[in-house]
Amino acid sequence: MDRNFLTAEELVAALRAGEVTSVELTDEAIARIERDDKAINAICVPDFDRARAAARRADQARARGEDGPLLGVPMTVKESYDVAGLPTTWGMPRYRDFVPAEDAVQVSRLRAAGAVVLGKTNVPLGLQDLQTFNEIYGTTNNPWDHERTPGGSSGGSAAALAAGFGALSIGSDLAGSLRTPAHFCGVYAHKPTLGLVANRGMVPPTTPALPVDLDLAVVGPMARTARDLTLLLDVMAGPDPLTLGVAHDLRLPPARHQRLGDFRVLVLDEHPLIPTGSAVRAGVNRVADALADGGARVERHSPLLPDLAEAGTLYTQLLFSGSVARFPIEAYEQLRTRAAGLSADDQSLDAARLRGMVLSHRDWIEADNRRELHRHGWRQLFAEFDAVVCPITPTPAFPHDHNPDLLERRIDIDGVECPFFDQLVWAGLATMPGLPATAVPAGRTPEGLPVGVQLIGPMFEDRTPLRLAELLEQRIGGFQAPR
Asked: Which residues of the chain, if any, have pLDDT below 70?
């Protein structure tokens, strides 16, 4: 039996029953990484000596009668999290020697839960790509097809899970960085409600690890099953002990339903700003059919759905307004000149990106006000529905594209070329209003590539899409190891 592909839940049960030790599991995981990761390049910063020491401590703790939700379970951490004694570079060569002195709050929570950290997983330059490559650590390949990307920016974590390098991982999501790699690699991920999971210590190199409220970005769990996502989210969730945690305790509401037949689901497979590829549409339809067969109420249209075109444009502006905040003033002034030359009639996403890069504070406040209207629209929609099923990106994993000018890249959608960043609108559907979204496998293409969909849920009701993911896994299956 290959224990490297057992779920975290199964590993915890085996450890509690005394059927295996953490040292054995850790050694098996390390052996698999050393055997297979040369071709995948998911683990960019191994930490095997300290992992073995942590595994020994976990076994000793269990022998003393101690327990923990992840006690003795081997897992990985995205490179962008601070881990004391290991480099945090975000793939940027000038920071290759930066080593933080303290763990990120989430790494501390993993250790407190008993997890064994095998090492850190690869990321794109500055976390700003749907792929995973950089000059320090090289390119991470999709375990299903090494000529294709595993996604980004949590691509190393998704590839590690698909390859059996640890039972769990943690990543982050601003533009689908949890969900896209999960979709491309056939695993599970959960983008939590904005603000649900403390992010301190998931910061660019040399930046003070302070508790800050991010505008769009979240940190969250990745796994090979829906139940493991919930297990890991329960470890991660909760306010920062330096801020809201001083006065607040977290109590997530239970899932709205336990039976599939009780769910009310809106299914979307078309977006006004970008076409949906046939493989992804087939995945959405496969999930829709499974929901209907299970007795769920499935609808394809609702007048309560916020305007998707406006949502995509608004998300694009908010996303890119943050992406250039630290640009040198000379570069910023060049962008202002280009934006001023846009025609007022140009409502393309390219134009929205450029306008977003130079939003004035006044314009940003107006955009934020429009976001609040969208949030209220989602509240009204979730009074009638429990979840929304839709694509994560329009295509399965695409071939590596290392063009350094990301704005010049194109994505091929069934023969139609679209600007590379236009594919972010599906991820932005949940990100812009701060909603939780669970990425789940939805089958494979005829060529064998994984296809996933996302289940968007009501704000702070993260257990609802997670429960729906678990029920879908029972009906259509979930993760399968690459052959």
From this structure: 1
